[in-house]
Amino acid sequence: MTTPTHVVSAGADLFADAVAEQAVAVTRVDWRPPMPGTEADLAVVAADPLRRDANQRALAAMLGVTAHLVDVAPASELLGLEPGQFLHAGPPIAWERASGPLRGALMGGAALEGLVEDPEDAVALFEKGSDVSLEPCHHRGTVGPMAGVVTPSMWMFVLEDLATGARTHCSLNEGLGKVLRYGAYGPEVLTRLRWMREVLGPLLQRAVRSTVDSTGPVDVTGILTQMLQMGDEAHNRNRAGTLMLLRDLAPAMVASGADASDVAESLRFIGGNDHFFLNLAMPACKLALDAARGIDGSTMVVAMARNGTDFGIQVAGTGDEWFTGPAQLADGLFLGDYGPDDANPDIGDSAITETAGIGGFAMATAPAIVRLVGGSVPDALATTRRMHEITLGENPRWTVPVLEFQGVPSGIDVTRVCRTGILPQINTGMAGRQAGVGQVGAGLVTPPAEIFPKALASLAERSRSRR
Amino acid sequence: MTTPTHVVSAGADLFADAVAEQAVAVTRVDWRPPMPGTEADLAVVAADPLRRDANQRALAAMLGVTAHLVDVAPASELLGLEPGQFLHAGPPIAWERASGPLRGALMGGAALEGLVEDPEDAVALFEKGSDVSLEPCHHRGTVGPMAGVVTPSMWMFVLEDLATGARTHCSLNEGLGKVLRYGAYGPEVLTRLRWMREVLGPLLQRAVRSTVDSTGPVDVTGILTQMLQMGDEAHNRNRAGTLMLLRDLAPAMVASGADASDVAESLRFIGGNDHFFLNLAMPACKLALDAARGIDGSTMVVAMARNGTDFGIQVAGTGDEWFTGPAQLADGLFLGDYGPDDANPDIGDSAITETAGIGGFAMATAPAIVRLVGGSVPDALATTRRMHEITLGENPRWTVPVLEFQGVPSGIDVTRVCRTGILPQINTGMAGRQAGVGQVGAGLVTPPAEIFPKALASLAERSRSRR
After folding, report:
1. Exposure string (b/e) for A333-352, b if CB count within 10 Å is 16 or more?
2. Is the pTM above the cut of 0.90?
3. B42-63+293-466: CATH homologous superfamily?
4. Does the structural domain A44-62+294-466 have CATH classification 3.40.50.620?
């Protein structure tokens, strides 16, 4: 009797192929060298006695949250934003280092708030700086797509984890093209924002409140479950999600007693904007990830966010510290005559979707997205599979039918990213580099690699100091 | 120099495997023997000089049609249906041979029309037969899901090919469970049908007509294009399609001047019934296939339909002749405590979707459907690939993203079915065997094999007589 031979092969295929040709069973392990200089910190964090349990708790906390739409109200009421205070996407940044699209959105926001008449006059206001202040959305329980500028009079969705009462917020989505979040601030942008403030916001407030009272709040996490079975990855495709929101709110909008022409116009506005639901998907993801914040020893990423200049991450085990590096240019498809030279580096809090396991992480369930962001269908399937290599687990609520209902890859693990060199894959819109331009395309992008070793170093330092 | 050896292997894998092991390039052809007794007719039809061109014309005619929703009105007006006239799904059948669910639907229909007070009393009416008549939907430019019973006072969608003015019709979808089309006829069924007649039908008429006048008629073929990118196969999954219809009609429903509570109730009714769009998908498919009727020499199937007793097909090259055999029992999943003994054989005109290349033929694009009809995700992908073996071409408008945007398999070819023995795959709902029960499940089914050799024989006979 011969003992069966079984070979485990890591790294290059040459050896595995040679053995397989001799009819020996081979298990291939996709091994890559760790990121340079991370070996010592990886060893420390791997040996951290808190790590395994902390990561299990962080993942479970994230997966345990369901987000419900409980209210719509102005940012001044909800977040205590005062005149002259502006929120923006990504990690902290000052006007001096702000990119074109962030500047454009701030200028439009200043005009919307009546701080200036002409958005161009706001440049002096922000350069002086004494009457205005900038703060990340994330620091006020909020997320903002692209520039992510929030001003006091903007109406916000309010999402709540009914089990804990925790809440997150996001503005209402304006649509595509020439819109504030892509840095445009022309008259059509301000006219639309004023209509959203005067008509859409108050109507949605009545509809959401009456829906809460009658059938209960809209289950945003549940809609996300459905969307992933309907070709949306909930970052650059939110078509089915938008339609389900419309279905859930339309009856209450009609019954609100509002003017029928305002209701009809609002239905057309939402129905005509496939991205409307993005501004619910994002705060739902933040609500889930916020539940995993502040868990000592956990190496799970709880936020990825970009301000158009810097890409930053926050990690469950490192408190409110941001680990930042330069935002990258996306590789993708351009609108009209725009090209790579017109694009600003990566911007927006929307990478919170990837942080929660959807968006680029769920591309396999949205193969049609390759027509928007580029790449091929096999790439889309491979991307989701690859993201499982850098995540702690799967989400049983959010599954991918074509991968036989496998849960989306959830809980980005700083140690796995450093150990494999595989970076999180993000789908994203591309803003014009110049303030005022608006959207120029959509594509695929990754974080700057160096932020993960930075986060790992902080985790290792905390681990050493606990000994 | 050695000439490279290349082997083409048809049939059993044994030979191909042996050759491949000797490092010879092998092209495997999935060959199966033709259906027994079809060899002579296959030879005649294959040699028919009209065939190739006729099939190209039939396929092009089908693929050239776009269906638009142009009106909603009662069957009495649209189809000239008189009191006592009933349409039903499938090929012609009399009361004596009608299955339980068809009888149940006819009994409910008779009560809806006021021919009897109690549906049970309609049995005598149909047994006597002198005051009532039965006719297939297909004979009046109509398709009906499941029992497919249409009575004069039911409101119908009207679909039009704007290029030719050709029209098809279908009733409004009632939802699932205890509904007339599944053979239920209890008070709740009749109450719902009366509300659809008094409230929903007239409201949809106003909304559709005003949409036609303002933004133009809803492009049903275009919605089908989108649905196939959103996890619907448009037979047993019509969720995205229903939502897009709601999006397109809701503004006009609101602006119709109708009572706000009726509008809100109608929005809830449509939004709460994921199958509402089925009754637009079906007549859109019929409109496309009707364009291919009456093309001498074409072996393309233009209708597959079941009345609960018989399964019938019609073919482009054989006029209005039906080729029928016994309807089969579906293999699938059952609701609640129901089991295989409770199910009626296959019923409904809804196999028009498969005839047009969607439904079971597009299962690859709707992998989540396996949770409703049974089977596995790999089965769903394999089914779409297999259906390409019995169809004339692909639909460039209706594509499957996960199969790298390949068009759905379109134009079932009687000769290919007979030559390969591969039967069309149909997704279907299952009605209870007893009149009055309603839906008991959903599953997968095929036509009875013998109807394809029957159609082939007729094609061969016509070919011989043309010589």
Report:
1. bbeeebeeebbbbbbbbbbb
2. yes
3. v583 domain like (3.90.1700.10)
4. no
